[in-house]
Amino acid sequence: MPIITSAKVIVTSPGRNFVTLKIETDEGIYGLGDATLNGRELAVASYLTDHVTPCLIGRDAHRIEDIWQFLYKGAYWRRGPVTMSAIAAVDTALWDIKGKVAGLPVYQLLGGAAREGVMVYGHANGATIEETIEAALIYQSEGYKAIRIQSGVPGLASTYGVSKDRYFYEPADADLPTENVWSTEKYLRSVPPLFEKAREALGWDVHLLHDAHHRLTPIEAARLGKDLEPFRPFWLEDAVPAENQANFRLIRQHTTTPLAVGEIFSSVWDCKQLIEEQLIDYIRATVVHAGGITHLRRIASFADMHNVRTGCHGATDLSPVCMAAALHFDLSVPNFGVQEYMRHTPETDAAFPHAYTFDRGMMHPGDKPGLGVEIDEDLAAKYEYKRAFLPVNRLEDGTMFNW
Ligand code: GCO
Ligand code: MG
Q1: Ligand 1, closest atom to CA 123?
Q2: pLDDT in tens, 155-210
Q3: 211 C-alpha to center of ligand 2: Å?
Q4: CA-based, 20 to 30 A from 234: which of 119, 153, 192, 374?
Q5: Is 262 in the pocket of ligand 1 (CB under 6 A)?
Q6: Which co-factors does it depend on (predicted)?
């Protein structure tokens, strides 16, 4: 059995900040786990270095479930994004080690491939509907079967999901939070025409997705869902903030537009009611923020019993280590729906060489033992951590609002 001899936290910023855990064993085999929590990176780095890694030394790296339970129950303080990202990093690294010891890609340890490949969605966005459609047509020509469409809102200077660079969208955009101005009324008027024009230009054979980024009330979300029904969206994401899971009942009563939520969830308890009452169609929790492969599989099994499919978060603030882990998970779970795929910058890709591939809208984790992802530590050491925050949002009268 491989005994854990060291565990170190690597903070690097190749294009953006990432926190990576590297666990080494006495057999010379090591594993990697992503621990990046966008805008709060150093909190997780400290949680790991100060409170977790000393407890790992000397343990049997094969005892993934036992170590998970030790970190979850043993902390006394359960759940929350910082704790669960730290646990996720350990869990992911241990699956990587187990795969390498077995000489098998992680998806084989999870039951093997349940499909040939993983359908991903790309992000098309633009300041205007025309620009968004132009970008979506490029994704379609590259073979994407699913495309998220976000457009600037007439009358608002800036909004979520519309980037300065149309190819790469970076959520954390400044060393102090930038302020944006929001109007729900203006936004609600802008989305139906976007979908109408998108269907005209792209046809009906491509899945179209949209992210409301936690900005609506239930009745507003119900209205948007109804308005979009004629255009058959694949999903409407984060329609309302989900602290109060019962909010989704009202949306459900009014619309058949499929609902997705959960990128900020850290545990099955955050989505228990949503899943049990079948208030959503897709659960967006992912490996790094929801307790690793072990806990995400628990969420997926529970979701499967209630006809809810997976749709893992995959923005650029989730490192290639998380992307690789998510792809092994996606390939193996029975109730896979779709995987988000925002391309990393060339700097990020160079620091994290990986085996996963993209081909005509489908991805595959590759067949290297373990996760199939590395960190080039010499290169990583050249990129120092740079403080970076997500933006904040205010209503037009100055009231603090949701980002
Ligand atoms: C998505 C997300 C992201 C988040 C970002 C926060 O759907 O990909 O909403 O854009 O805002 O990951 O760190
Ligand atoms: Mg989102």
Answers
A1: 8
A2: 999 899 998 776 677 889 899 999 999 999 999 999 999 999 999 999 999 999 99
A3: 6
A4: 153
A5: no
A6: Mg(2+)
- Spatial neighbors of 166 by CB under 8 A, at least 6 apart, are 125, 126, 131, 135
Check: CB of residue 136 under 8 Å from CB of residue 360: no
Kindly list the catalytic residues.
160, 213
Burial, 14: exposed, middle or buried (Cβ in 10 Å; 0-12, 13-18, 19+)?
buried
Ligand 1 centre to CA of 35 (Å) is 16
Decide if 149 contacts 207 (C-beta within 8 A). Answer: no
Whether residues 90 and 145 share a domain: the answer is: no
Ligand 1 near 211 CB (within 6 A)? yes
Together in a domain, 100 and 130: no
Roughly how many angstroms between the first and final C-alpha of the chain, as a whole number? 47
Q: Is residue 386 part of a domain?
A: no
Same domain, 119 and 95: no
- pLDDT for 78-129, tens place per residue? 999 999 999 999 999 999 999 999 999 999 999 999 999 999 999 999 999 9
CA of 99 to the centre of ligand 1 (A): 30
Atom of ligand 1 nearest to the CA of 39: 13
Whether the CA torsion 184, 160, 293, 291 is positive or negative: it is: negative
372 in any annotated domain: no
Say if residue 92 is in the same domain as residue 42: yes
Q: What phi, psi does 192 have (nearest 5°)?
A: -55, -45
198-252 pLDDT, tens digit each: 999 999 999 999 999 999 999 999 999 999 999 999 999 999 999 999 999 999 9
Range of the domain at 128: 110-367
Q: Both 224 and 250 in a single domain?
A: yes
Q: Does 122 sit in the ligand 1 pocket, CB within 6 Å? A: no
Q: Ligand 2 centroid vs 302 CA: distance in angstroms?
A: 22
> Starting at the edge strand that comes first in sequence, how are the strands of the sheet with 30-34 ordered?
4-12, 18-25, 30-34
- Name the closest-CA residue to atom 3, ligand 1: 315
- CA pair distance 211, 18, nearest whole angstrom: 24
80 and 26: one domain? yes
Pocket flag, ligand 1, residue 171 (CB < 6 Å): yes
What domain count does the chain have? 2
Instruction: Tell me if the pTM is above 0.85.
Output: yes
| CATH code of the domain covering residue 78 | 3.30.390.10
64 with 151, same domain?
no
